[in-house]
Specification:
Length: about 80
């Protein structure tokens, strides 16, 4: 399955997109009912208390990118 990668979004961007979609649908309860998630969960995500899970991300057309790590310094225990 090919995924089209768009711009990276911050957590704030995702919350704003969810808030906008809820407004378009007629509120958090209505959006939650359509997408089969709890309205309290939607509220928690919008407020920043909770992270969006797969159902919410899929409904918004988003996917979570895995975290990546890069070394910025040599640890003191590294062999020389």
């Amino acid at each position: 399955m090919l995924r089209r990668r768009g711009p990276q979004l911050s957590a704030t961007d995702v919350r704003a997109r969810l808030r906008d979609e809820c407004c378009r649908r007629g509120g958090q309860r209505a959006w939650a009912r359509v997408h089969d998630v709890a309205d309290t969960y939607v509220s928690g995500v919008i407020s920043g208390r909770l992270e969006p899970g797969p159902k919410i991300l899929r409904a918004l057309g988003l996917a979570r990118d895995p975290a990546t790590y890069s070394e910025i310094w040599e640890p003191p225990y590294a062999e020389k």
